[in-house]
Input
Amino acid sequence: MPADEIVNQKRALRAELKGRRRNKPQILQDRETAQLTAQLQQLVENLEAHSLSAYLSAPTEPNTRPFLNWARAEGIRTLLPISRVDGLLDWTTGDGETEAISDLGVPEAVGELLGPMAIDEVDLMLVPAASVDVTGMRLGWGKGYFDKMIGSMGKCPPVFAVLFDDELVDEVPRERHDEPVDGVVTPKRVVLLSKRAKALGLAEA
Output
């Protein structure tokens, strides 16, 4: 398939998913937030993770805020990304309260910059996604930050994308630079997608 056709397919799918997220009723969002928090907590406990990377969710994304509060209260070291102009990600632990809106229009933590290599220390990575397919291929939001990060890591910890339940699909458009994830976490379940994830002996929710 021509590259420009794949790009157009991605653009159309992202627009559809954004619209679906914006139209989600608040009462459903609240229920799914509580469910998602429980699923994320269970994954961390099953992996016995002492450190992880995550992100501050935007208003229409699955809400990671209660989970991040739980992780901080449990003493789990949590790195949060800060985008750079060179396409890499810096990391910070933040203070649990202060944040800013990045040039990309998404919320980012504010704190001491730890550098791109800080991510090498974590036991688990939680990343945003528009959609993921059953092979683990992730459709991001088009900036490439997380694909570049995952692809550059020599020893990458398990990577799980955080989605709504209907965003795990049969297939998503793929370009050469796209990187797969090991599994997904949704409000209703944890799904293991890679051989590496299944070898961890985790029970799917």
